[in-house]
Structure formats: structure tokens, C-alpha cells
């Protein structure tokens, strides 16, 4: 599992996760993902390279989203693999974290101009 972090503006971070978000994958990216959540007000997460997500991966996303929410921030997920999106929706993650088709949609939902 790999993680790439790209600042898009003040307090706006794009995180790209690539690989399986299973026990090993979550452990590999958790420190940097947590750090990204702590540094951001808006975090958009590109899941286009994540073909599988276990419950530990869902927990990682929810913990980050809750931390962002506590400080008035927001997380948006985008470009989910269809099976991953199905898992996220069936477990109710979409009730807490927006799931969007594109990065621009995720940013717009957070009130950020997509040109950022």
C-alpha cells in the first residue's frame, strides 16, 4: 500500500491511496494518513488505486473523518472502485463521508473551487 500527499492550498490536502486497504495496507499508511488529517481542514482522498478495502480500512477513513469533523473540517472520497464504493455505502460510510465521482466534485462539496 502506498500513500501520496499533495497540498492543494492552505489546509487543503489531496491524499492518493494505492493498493489493498487491508490489515497490512492500513498499517503501512496509517501514520501519514493520520498526519494528513491533522494538517488539513479539507482532505480529499483518491481511491482510484484501491481495489479492496477491509473493515480496518474503513476504520482508518472514519477515524480521520471524525478527527477532521471535530475541528470543523471535512473529508471527501472520490474515484472509488465500484466494489469499494459498494462496501462503503453498504456499511454506511457515505452517511458520514461524502463519496464523489471526481476530485472536482469532492472539492466542490467541501466548498472549495475545483480550480484549486
TrEMBL record:
Domain STAS: from-to ranges: 10-110
Gene3D superfamilies: STAS domain (3.30.750.24)
InterPro entries documented for this protein: Anti-sigma_ant, STAS_dom, STAS_dom_sf
Entry-linked PROSITE patterns: STAS (PS50801)
Family: Belongs to the anti-sigma-factor antagonist family.
Record-given protein name: Anti-sigma factor antagonist
Organism (species): Xanthobacter aminoxidans
Amino acid at each position: 500500500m502506498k500513500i501520496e500527499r499533495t497540498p492543494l492550498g492552505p489546509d487543503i490536502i489531496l491524499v492518493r491511496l494505492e493498493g489493498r486497504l487491508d490489515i497490512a495496507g492500513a498499517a503501512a499508511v496509517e501514520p501519514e494518513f493520520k498526519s494528513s488529517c491533522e494538517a488539513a481542514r479539507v482532505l480529499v482522498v483518491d481511491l482510484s488505486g484501491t481495489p479492496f478495502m477491509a473493515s480496518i480500512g474503513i476504520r482508518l477513513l472514519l477515524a480521520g473523518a471524525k478527527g477532521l469533523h471535530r475541528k470543523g473540517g471535512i473529508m471527501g472520497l472520490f474515484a472509488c472502485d465500484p466494489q469499494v464504493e459498494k462496501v462503503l455505502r453498504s456499511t454506511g460510510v457515505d452517511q458520514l463521508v461524502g463519496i464523489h465521482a471526481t476530485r472536482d466534485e469532492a472539492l466542490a462539496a467541501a466548498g472549495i473551487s475545483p480550480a484549486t
